Please model this.
Amino acid sequence: MNRDEAELRDLFHRMCAAWTAGDAHAYGDLFTEDSDYVSFDGTRARERAPMVESHDQLFRGVLAGTALVGDVESVRFLSDDVALVHGTGSVLVAWRSTPPKGRLTRNTIVCVRTPVGWRIAAVHNGRVRPVAVPPPDSVPARLARTLVRLSARFGLGRAGVTA
Model:
């Protein structure tokens, strides 16, 4: 592992530590001023200040006493000064010792080198909830194709639009 990868892994762990300390300002200091933050529910905060404000409210409210636990899955350098980090994490409430099933989140994090070290420029969180894709000959797939044909026949929705 090279020095930059070690620093990026440390950045991820400092992010978890700041969350666990309930310190929205320390959490925000790990991000660039113009960062983008997409929460697991799809909410987007543009720029550091609104993200810090929302996390401050969360840390003093419904997420008081929580810990952010997780680890880095991979680091890929897109250039000398830009890295793509994938990690997994979960918010652990005070009365639990392990995260509940179904609460694992995958983080896609874009990090940039700044004069003060690596910082997070963008993060997108999404719940890990794999969906089984039915095979083409399954009942759900056959039903979907039937609905497409019926929609086209009756001129409904996108299937009813001709180019």
Remarks:
- The radius of gyration is 21 Å.
- The first strand starts at residue 31 and ends at 38.
- The beta strands are 31-38, 44-46, 67-79, 82-92, 105-114, 117-127.
